[in-house]
Amino acid sequence: MKKALSLLAALSLMVSFTACGDDTSSSVADTSSSKADSSSSEESSEPAAEGTKELKIWAFTTEVPGMVDKYMEQNPDFAKQYTVKPSIIATTNGEYQPALDAALAGDEVDMFAAEAAFVLKYTQGEGSRYAAPYEDLGIDVDAKIKEAEIAQYTVDIGTNPDGKVVGLGYQATGGAFIYRRSIAKDTFGTDDPNTVKSEIGPGWDKFFEAAEKLKAKGYGIVSGDGDIWHAVENSSDTGWIVDDKLHIDPKREEFLDLSMKLMENGYHNDTQDWQEGWFADMAGTGEKQVLGFFGPAWLINYTMAGNCGRQVDEDTGEVVKDEDGNEILGTWGDWAVCEPPIGFFWGGTWVLGTNASQNKDAIGKIIEWITLDTSETGLQYMWANGTYAPNEDGTPGTKDAVASNVVMKKSNGEVDFLGGQNMFDVFVPANDFANGKNLTPYDETINQQWRDQVRQYTSKQKSKEEAIEAFKQAVSDTLNIDAE
Prior knowledge:
By secondary structure, the protein is α+β, with helices and mostly antiparallel strands. The protein has 2 domains: about 20-170 and about 345-410, 3-Layer(aba) Sandwich (D-Maltodextrin-Binding Protein, domain 2); about 175-345 and about 415-435, Periplasmic binding protein-like II (D-Maltodextrin-Binding Protein, domain 2). The chain has 20 helices and 13 strands. The protein has helices at about 5-15, 65-75, 75-80, 95-105, 120-125, 140-150, 150-155, 180-190, 195-200, 205-215, 225-235, 250-265, 275-285, 295-305, 360-370, 380-385, 405-410, 425-435, 445-460, 465-480, and strands spanning about 40-45, 55-60, 80-90, 110-115, 170, 175-180, 240, 245, 290-295, 335-340, 350-355, 415, 420. A 6-stranded mixed sheet has the order 1-3-2-4-11-5. It is globular and about 70 Å long. The model is unreliable at about 1-40 (pLDDT under 50).
């Protein structure tokens, strides 16, 4: 009998899931979605069927091409007219963007996917000249966005410098606080999300008051300082670059103090995200038990659920039992979600069409079905309810938060991992709290350099001033961007 997801499997999956742009390692993905494998490059060499037009789809996992296949399956008359040619190149080792750029320059792309780590390059940066406004694809985009109640942060990120929407996502990656029910009951007297959210926030002062209460009970509040970074990063008023200069937003600079406070007071286990200690805390086997993690629905579905200590037989799909006949569940079912102290988002994938495409109408239909269709046959409804990719026995698959609040409001977000809680009750408002106006095309590199210096500060290797100066120098050396 075997675990469905061991630590080794989880580590390997991190490079195959739809990536969100992890700021701690440029070669490790953030797993914004697990339904696709990108561990290898793949390009279809099959010629277009006779009498059909070729749709060239570029992506870094099989996820978006799989959606195109699903659309073709649902629309057989449409499928008779087109042959899909997918080019799938993993983001691992930085291979996807150069290949995509060359294809875009050669007018060899009809539609492509871009993740949060680099999407601004194609919506607002140098690559935006290739991206077609949705309205040019035949989409009544403004009306559809309003009708579907699409999360505003995803719209902001997908809007080009001319104010035209050129990209939207299908997932919602607005963040929540994901906490252990048993620890909340022991510390706060209840595991009710409305009470817990008031214990840990709003704001960092309340969060650290809760940390002190947890410490008195022998618990940590989070696993490591990385657990609060995305909330800090994406609640800042400005991004890393302002007027072509490196800018340190005061809220991001405060991360130095917040991280040191966690360290000096023993409020966490001082783990690093995506490493063994971090996963151990999800299973409750770390140095001390911790209350929770900051993250979107994908962190629950594709990271925590597989690392919570629940053992499933790979052959039968049944939960393994111990010698006494009890299912080995780890922390499965002991989790819940509530509003975080600070609104934020983490990750996501945007879908774009190209100006050069000779199939704009066809691409427009597919993109609208992926990003804006709120019907029960639309991608987002199936994604939210777990019916897009059901389990092998035909039962619903993994449920996920989606960009349309309308879809989540009419969907069943009850999840066994969360003790039956309807996660959409939290992730709908989470979409509204997220801010998409503080990203830059350089965030992946700069975030890694910032996090490195913060760790040197909290480990007392450098003073705060030395860490900040070293950070500025690192950005200047690698990106040729000077500080203000």
